[in-house]
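Morning!

This is the sequence you dropped in the shared folder:
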Amino acid sequence: MGTPKNNIRKSVQLTEMTVSEKLKALSVGGEINMDFTATNLTVIFETVVKILLPLVEWLDKEVHGGFGDRRAMSLINSQIFGFASIMLQRSGDWLVFTPDVCQSIGSADFAKLVAMKSDNLSTLFGDKWDKEMIKFMEDNSFLKHICQRHYLVWLLSEIFNSVENQIKEREARLQIMKQRLSVFHEFETTLDPFTAKEEPLKWKEYSIWDGGHRETGDYLSPSALSEFWKIAKSRVGKGYRQNNLDLDISSLDFFICRLKYHIGDISRAKLNNQQNAHSLWGYNSGRLPFTKGEITVLQKLAQEIEKKEQ
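The structure's back. Tokens below.
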């Protein structure tokens, strides 16, 4: 139910109605008179289409019975007021079933059909009123317009109830979907050893700073800075210091992101043909490839992660 398909027609965007759209729609009932004419009914049914059409592609379903791949949203699905079923299509046309025929018609033709049916109170209310009630209304013609207006309000009320029930059914299904998705999320988190046990992993990085300025890239062991310290010691009057950065790795994603950060710095240095401490002195220059000591650090971190999985 409700599967938007772009190859059927240009999608009608589902948005909240603006204040002006609401006022225009709500003013229709007061602007037309009590005359139950096809012209007045056309205005009413065109307003119904404007309000409900954005819902159709989310609530419609395939229409069976030799209609090909036609889809429509059910508005009335019971024998009532002389109709067997009334549906609204994505095109904005009505799909009207009577005991004898099915028609795909616009609002103007649907209004003519309703106006024609409204002349016969037995057709409209035969299953709702007893014969005495119908005869009384027919004998007193001054009540006809009231009966017709009552019929129209009743018809639109049935449409409202039908669509509301479909939305409630959709909401109930969505709640079940959300519950299953929540279980899926819990299942997914159990596969991450960090979130499953809520135990972060310590990740340390080291770099050389001069006051408030970083002079090297980040490295995973102090020994990886040895070549840079040789340069630093040859520069008299500088206040170089080692900065230690302690991070808590709380997920596999965080671990991979930090690793990706370091590999990105290595790749940038290679791309710029900067392969020694002298050329990589400076914050934006990247970093040297991983040393054996750093590889050992990564191996130990990987072992810690594997322990969490046990």
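Headline: The first strand starts at residue 61 and ends at 62.

More detail when I'm at my desk.
O.
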